[in-house]
Amino acid sequence: MSSSRQDLRALLSRLDASVSILHTKHPQDKDFFASTDGIFSDVIAQSSREDEDWVCEMVDWICTRHRMPYPAA
């Protein structure tokens, strides 16, 4: 079942807060991305087809804001 935009915003907010913590624990890019891949995928999986592009843009924005651009898959 897809989450509403409001629910997705809450998930993205929690994800944003956890990125800096994970980056501190995993300072190497490769380790950082390995530690975050599941949480990004979980948020994307909860989005509807209509919201998927928006969620991907928000994930990219979060990573860029933390100076950790997410690698293209």
Characterization of this structure:
With 73 residues, this protein is mostly helical. It has helices at 5-25, 29-45, 52-65. Helix 1 (5-25) runs parallel beside helix 3 and helix 2 (29-45) runs antiparallel to helix 3. The protein is elongated and about 35 Å long. The N and C termini lie far apart (24 Å). The model has no long low-confidence stretch (mean pLDDT 84).
Low-confidence stretches: none
Structural class: mainly alpha
The overall pLDDT average reads 84
Q: Report the end-to-end length measured between terminal Cα atoms.
A: 24 Å
List the helices and strands and how they pair.
Elements (H helix, E strand, L loop, with lengths): L4 H21 L3 H17 L6 H14 L8
Helix pairs in contact: 1-2, 1-3, 2-3
